[in-house]
Amino acid sequence: MSQRQTETPRRASASAVVGRFNDQRWLVDSVIRTSGMEWDQPRLGHLNAAMGPEATPDIQHIRQSVKRFSDISRAFAAAAKKRKSRALAALEKHQPVTARDNFYMAAGFYASAQWPIYENSAENLEFNAQKRDSYSRYAELADHRVEAVWLKVGDARIPAWFHLPYHYQGGQIPALVSVPGMDGFKERTVSLYGDRWLNRGVAVLAIEAPGQYECPTLDVYGSMDAWKATGTAAFEWLAARAEIDSDKIAITGNSFGSFIATIAFSNEPRFACCAATATCFEPGHWTIFDQASPTFRARFMYMCGMQTEAQFDRFRRDLTWEGQVEKIRKPYLCVAGEEDNLSPLEHTDRMFENMQASRMLMVYQGANHGPAESPSVGNGPFAPVFVTEWMISRLNREPFASERWFIENSGNIVRTAYPSLP
Questions:
Q1: CB distance 218 to 305 below 8 Å
Q2: 103, 61, 74: which is closest to 86 by C-alpha?
Q3: What is d(CA 199, CA 168) in angstroms, rounded to the nearest whole number?
Q4: What separation, in Å, do the N-terminal and C-terminal C-alpha atoms of the chain show?
Q5: How many Cα atoms within 13 Å fall on the side-chain side of residue 78?
Q6: Residue 413 parent element (H or E)
Q7: CA distance 87 to 65
Q8: What is the pLDDT of residue 13?
Q9: Winning range, highest mean pLDDT, from 39-43, 134-138, 153-157, 372-376
């Protein structure tokens, strides 16, 4: 069951002006024709994993259809419209499971159609409205309780979805605040089937922090202060729920969400633990914004409400864990690739040297940002499950070794202890 709730966007922002992206679009199109639509990072695999096997033909068709940047929104929107049409037809035939699944897929495809749009255009706002409507309809039919949530952060409200575990029978249970990456969205956080958190009895508050996905359509933009406040807002919302054990609330973040979750965790000591995956820990984020695909810079400028690169470059100087992670006193886990192409490992290692909490860093040999594309990922611990079980163990106050793990391509793990806490 869910509560249908929407917010009305206040204004349409202008598109950010990014020189490399606007002046050399032909290079982006050329790379897409050569390498495919996941030239900057894999996103279709994550979407397919959340939706399940029924979405695979749609994903394959999208992959084949996209030959240039302008094709991306069209391809996802076509899949979204098809799935929503099937969902509505299923409702008329009294087929609630088929309707539910297709509404979920429609929401994910509409959200994905928003990704290449870096302004509050009519098209972006329409995709957002269709996404919310589709996911709200999914929530009403879901196999677990799903609620629409709006968190108060300063003078703004940010959107979220609250999921109770399958077959919840009452009593107080653990909860997780989940922060997506720069290209991720809250509707993809909890899988359509067999979600690893819900299966283990953990409630999930899937948020989008200020600046992420739906937030810019509401003129709610990202900043260090906003991300600090987000952690407290999410924690207090969960702690006020009768279903949640306030001593067992954790936070996790993936990709740029690893940075946002870490900042939130650093400034909200009541969280029990934190896990960060696919790191973004370079102070100022030079690699992702200046060396990687220009789409990262363009999207993040939109996320932070910046129209000029000079304005953005001044703003991002303050985007750092320095002076923040030193405050952490609860267990912290990080999963990284040795060859992270968006955030060099040296910055993550330096961050860990500055931390005083019990902590664990898992580094996959040869792996990229994912971490992926290395035998170490397949032969070593399966990161999503490892992270889930690690966090549940921490919520249960089980001890662990404060170590750096280097996972070799063979799957062998080389362990190095961090210094004992004073």
A1: no
A2: 103
A3: 10
A4: 49
A5: 11
A6: strand 413-417
A7: 23
A8: 52
A9: 134-138
Using left for φ > 0, alpha for ψ between -120 and 50, and beta otherwise, residue 200 falls in: alpha
pLDDT tens, residue by residue, 309-336: 999 999 999 999 999 999 999 999 999 9
Closest CA to 420 of 362, 361, 357, 360: 357
- Give the CA-trace dihedral at 171, 206, 195, 401, to 10 degrees: -80
What tokens were used for 68?
């240039």
- For residues 186-201, average pLDDT: 97
What is the Cα–Cα distance from 112 to 51, expressed in whole angstroms?
A: 13
Read off φ and ψ for residue 126, nearest 5 degrees: -70, -45
Task: Quick: pLDDT tens for 217-229.
Answer: 999 999 999 999 9
Instruction: Kindly state the tokens that stand for 54.
Output: 């029924």
- Is the Cβ–Cβ distance between 101 and 86 less than 8 Å? no
**Confidence band (pLDDT; 50, 70, 90) for 7?**
very low
Closest listed residue to residue 289, CA positions, set 312, 308, 305: 312
Alpha helix segments (H runs only) across 304-362: 309-316, 345-354
What residues have CB less than 8 Å from 31, skipping those under 6 apart?
39, 293
Between CA 300 and CA 311, with CA 305 as vertex, the angle to 5 degrees is 85
For 335-370, what is each residue's pLDDT tens digit? Answer: 999 999 999 999 999 999 999 999 999 999 999 998
